[in-house]
Write a sequence for this structure.
């Protein structure tokens, strides 16, 4: 474990890279180079230097320059106006321009418009057209406009991301981007159970995920070391179960109002929240809070270590299912999203028979309260309802039998989220010198975390590409206590997983060119990141 307070000294050095990206897009509208779909490494056109890579990039024509008199012209609807204000909020401090958000006609400035007839853009796609005088983002749905705005901010000089007045010119390369996602589910998970993170810390993380078109935020709300969400019918879950964390430090929990605040903030970034209540293992905090939930009727002590697999709810007791139903009902009631995650991993002290019996009842409770089940892939060891979702977190070393169990569930109608631990786990150490994080799934450098293809990943076990709903990058917090630490582990690997989700498979050699340009942008937004030696970061 990392001794408290030892944090990579890199951060000071990072602050020196100010504004390095400014101007690097200027002047390159030249139409001769090819778009996406396989440009030679290093030859990515300026219009395509975006993460995740857009589906189609057609450079050409004159670049757009955002001028002091520009307006943000929006459709006359509250939602498009709100997206316009969000964009203005990004651009005003650094440009110093007024950038009024105005409904109504006009062909100059930045235009944000919904066109329901543009069926090909789907629920999340957009088109961005850049030329002298006008920059237009068109989408069929508001989520698409929001994603188009994320592309736009990446096409402006990196200094635009600063919160203080900067020098332009504020140019966007000329041409057209037409972009839709490869996968519908593009997730990131945060473990607030091992260490607790405040609402503001969670919002900050959500804001950074949004830049890379992540659309699902999975909150791991309960584990052995802490229960982090208030449940009215079982109040000791937070007063006792939420009172501490790994290492015995302070605990914390969200009230229902605070949870709603997170959900609302995520929704404003077009992200759906998936709450996770981890069952029947990872429940030491529950067993410490309520004596009657233990088979022998005696409360267990609170747990502040980092072992896994030792706790289990009492599968034979009727009160266990009152508890499960109450918790799922209350959490479902404050969750507008489709999914409720019931964990199911590492239930090593529950017998396979008990596990299957328990999971059948827990899944029925989720259905009763109107949600779709997500579970870690061990849930495939129980009967899964058609349409429910298994989250695969195996590695290259996972036994074929375990993969085949997942494939069998898929054949019966389950769908998959891929979070292979030796690629997508943001808590794995980057290299042998990394002080933070764990290494049970190996060292996961930035290149390794990028080097996989979700559609092929479980093909040899018999999982067809169309069973894959998408990808997710989990961030477990056994060793992480501050936002700076979370960010250093997540960035830049999160970008690669986001790109797997949005763009599908692409080559590392091409990606690393685009990734390098994100360094100054992360830095300008004040995000701490790991300057992996595998990337030629601009200085
Ligand atoms: C495995 S992934 C776990 C977590 C740990 C994580 C650490 C999963 C479903 N279970 O309990 O926090 O490894 O990397």
């Amino acid at each position: 474990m990392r001794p408290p307070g030892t944090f990579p000294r890199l951060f000071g050095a990072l602050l020196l890279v100010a504004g390095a990206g400014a101007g690097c897009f200027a002047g390159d509208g030249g139409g001769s180079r090819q778009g996406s779909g396989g440009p030679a490494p290093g030859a990515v056109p300026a219009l395509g230097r975006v993460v995740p890579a857009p589906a189609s990039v057609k450079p050409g024509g004159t670049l757009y320059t955002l001028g002091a008199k520009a307006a943000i012209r929006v459709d006359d609807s509250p939602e498009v106006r709100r997206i316009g204000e969000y964009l203005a909020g990004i651009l005003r401090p650094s440009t110093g321009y007024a950038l009024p958000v105005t409904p109504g006609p006009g062909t100059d400035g930045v235009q944000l418009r919904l066109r329901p007839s543009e069926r090909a853009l789907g629920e999340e796609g957009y088109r961005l057209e850049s030329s002298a005088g006008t920059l237009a983002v068109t989408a069929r749905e508001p989520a698409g406009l929001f994603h188009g705005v994320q592309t736009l901010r990446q096409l402006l000089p990196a200094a635009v991301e600063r919160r203080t007045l900067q020098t332009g010119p504020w140019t966007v390369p000329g041409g057209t981007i037409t972009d839709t996602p490869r996968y519908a589910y593009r997730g990131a998970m945060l473990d607030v159970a091992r260490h607790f993170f405040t609402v503001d810390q969670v919002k900050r993380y959500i804001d950074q995920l949004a830049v890379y078109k992540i659309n699902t935020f999975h909150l791991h709300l309960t584990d052995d070391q802490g229960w982090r969400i208030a449940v009215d019918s079982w109040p000791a879950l937070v007063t006792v179960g939420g009172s501490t964390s790994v290492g015995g430090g302070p605990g914390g929990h969200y009230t229902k109002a605070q949870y709603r605040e997170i959900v609302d903030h995520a929704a404003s970034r077009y992200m759906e929240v998936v709450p996770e209540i981890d069952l029947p293992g990872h429940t030491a905090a529950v067993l410490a809070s309520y004596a009657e939930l233990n088979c022998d009727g005696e409360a267990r002590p609170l747990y502040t270590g980092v072992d896994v697999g030792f706790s289990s709810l009492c599968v034979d007791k009727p009160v266990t299912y009152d508890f499960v139903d109450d918790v799922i009902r209350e959490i479902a009631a404050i969750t507008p999203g489709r999914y409720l995650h019931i964990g199911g991993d590492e239930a090593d002290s529950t017998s396979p028979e008990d596990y299957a019996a328990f999971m059948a009842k827990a899944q029925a409770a989720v259905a009763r309260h109107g949600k779709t089940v997500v579970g870690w892939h061990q849930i495939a060891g129980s009967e899964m309802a058609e349409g429910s979702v298994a989250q695969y977190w195996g590695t290259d070393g996972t036994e074929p039998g375990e993969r085949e169990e997942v494939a069998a569930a898929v054949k019966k109608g389950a769908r998959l989220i891929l979070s292979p631990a030796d690629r997508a786990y943001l808590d794995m150490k980057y290299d042998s010198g990394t002080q933070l994080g764990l290494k049970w799934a190996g060292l996961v450098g930035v290149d390794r975390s990028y080097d996989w293809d979700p559609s092929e990943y479980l093909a040899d076990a018999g999982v067809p590409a169309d069973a894959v709903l998408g990808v997710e990058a989990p961030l477990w917090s056994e060793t992480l206590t501050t936002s700076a630490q979370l960010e250093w582990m997540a960035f830049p690997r999160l970008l690669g997983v986001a790109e797997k989700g949005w763009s599908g498979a692409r080559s590392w050699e091409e990606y690393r060119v685009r990734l390098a340009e994100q360094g100054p942008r992360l830095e300008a937004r004040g995000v701490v990141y790991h300057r992996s030696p595998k990337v030629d970061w601009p200085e």
About this structure: The first strand starts at residue 56 and ends at 59. Residues 215-374 form a domain with the TIM Barrel fold (CATH 3.20.20.80). The longest helix spans residues 78-95. The two ends are 33 Å apart (CA to CA).
